[in-house]
Every structure is written in structure tokens, then in C-alpha cells.
Automatic annotation (TrEMBL):
<feature type="region of interest" description="Disordered">
    <location>
        <begin position="178"/>
        <end position="205"/>
    </location>
</feature>
<protein>
    <submittedName>
        <fullName>Thioredoxin</fullName>
    </submittedName>
</protein>
<dbReference type="Pfam" id="PF00085">
    <property type="entry name" value="Thioredoxin"/>
</dbReference>
<dbReference type="InterPro" id="IPR013766">
    <property type="entry name" value="Thioredoxin_domain"/>
</dbReference>
<feature type="domain" description="Thioredoxin">
    <location>
        <begin position="45"/>
        <end position="175"/>
    </location>
</feature>
<feature type="region of interest" description="Disordered">
    <location>
        <begin position="30"/>
        <end position="68"/>
    </location>
</feature>
<dbReference type="InterPro" id="IPR036249">
    <property type="entry name" value="Thioredoxin-like_sf"/>
</dbReference>
Length: 205
């Protein structure tokens, strides 16, 4: 009988953890200002291991930030043949068989096309495991909002962020009157809305 209760307890804990993770999926979270050592533990797949010298990485997926001589991502993007956006960069980490990554690409590319000075850069996580490890990217899609200096401001992972959430996050580093499309309103808290808002509307049939 004890074994049954242990099993029930394990199921309850697993369900609670799964629910908590889904609640965070696609929501932007503040960046952490802690640096990850470049020679930290080995990467496996797209899961970043914390550096032993740095302690544990944050469980909620917030960033331990930023490599590069200035603590920003400018050097990392340059190594990929990419440049920072004049005002902000939407840095997306994807994998080949990640279905939500395609929706995320649509959302971010659409926002970048609407907001002057904002670039969308997509990185193949499996082909750049070194960078994945340094930036503590654990799941795909992961989206980093990077300011003009290369500093990570916020990140979201696990599901496509909504357009409204991306606009609201950009409003922290770009004047709001320059990022709000005509006829739309943007929440100031960056909260996630329904999944139906997470991508461009389908074309009329």
C-alpha cells in the first residue's frame, strides 16, 4: 500500500511541475546579471550545463548573461556573421524538428519588419552548442531580447511569445510610440495572451 501512495505522490508532483513549466512557456522573464564561464561543463543536445565554478544556473531559464569582452552579445553575433540591430535584436534559438520554432520565426520576423532598427536573428542551436551552453539555452524555441549595446534584457522559452508580448518587451528599450502598430494597443507588463495571438493570422481562404 505504501508503494501505491508513493506512486500517487510522484504523479502529483510531476503534474504540478509540468503545469508550472507550461505557465512560464512563452513568457518573457528578466535577464540575470551573472556570467557563465566559457569553459563550463559539457553541452548535451541543446541543454546547457552550468559551470561548476559558477554554481547552479537559474531553474526558470533566465539568463546568466552574456559573454563577450563588454558583457554583451556583440562578439557572439559577429562570429555568426550577424550584426546587432540599431535599437534591438530578437535573437532566436531553434532546432530542425521544433514545430513551435516556426511560429516563433513568423512572430519575430513580423515584429522586426514593423519596428525600425529591430533585427531578427535565428540561430541553429544544434550547430552552435558552445553558444547554447554559454547562454544557458535549455529549450527551443528560446528568444533573447537584446538591446543596442548587446546586453540581454529579457528572454522567453518553450513556446512562441505573442506579438503583443514582444512589442511590450521592446517598449522597455525602444520608445513606445515607435513600436506600436497603428490601431493596436500594447500591454505594458509583457504578459502572454492566448495562443491564438502568438502568430500571424492565417490568410483568408
Amino acid at each position: 500500500m505504501t508503494g501505491v501512495w508513493v506512486l500517487v505522490g510522484a504523479v502529483v508532483v510531476a503534474v504540478a511541475l509540468g503545469t508550472a513549466m507550461r505557465a512560464r512557456d512563452g513568457r518573457f522573464r528578466p535577464s540575470r546579471g551573472r556570467r557563465v564561464a566559457a569553459d563550463g561543463g559539457p553541452a548535451r543536445a541543446v541543454v546547457a550545463e552550468p559551470s561548476p565554478a559558477d554554481g547552479t544556473s537559474p531553474a526558470d531559464g533566465t539568463s546568466p548573461v552574456a559573454a563577450g569582452p563588454d558583457g554583451g552579445l556583440r562578439a557572439e553575433l559577429a562570429a555568426l556573421g550577424e550584426a546587432l540591430g540599431e535599437r534591438a535584436t530578437l535573437l532566436q534559438f531553434s532546432t530542425a524538428f521544433c514545430a513551435p520554432c516556426r511560429s516563433t520565426r513568423q512572430v519575430l520576423a513580423g515584429v522586426a519588419a514593423l519596428v525600425p532598427g529591430v533585427r531578427h536573428v535565428e540561430v541553429d542551436a544544434e550547430a552552435h552548442l558552445d553558444l547554447v551552453r554559454r547562454l544557458a539555452v535549455r529549450r527551443t524555441p528560446t528568444v533573447l531580447i537584446v538591446d543596442a549595446s548587446g546586453r540581454e534584457v529579457r528572454r522567453a522559452s518553450g513556446a512562441p511569445p505573442t506579438r503583443q508580448a514582444v512589442f511590450a518587451t521592446l517598449a522597455q528599450i525602444v520608445p513606445a510610440d515607435e513600436i506600436v502598430p497603428t490601431g493596436q494597443t500594447v500591454p505594458t507588463d509583457g504578459t502572454k495572451r492566448a495562443d491564438s495571438d502568438s502568430s500571424e493570422p492565417p490568410p483568408a481562404g
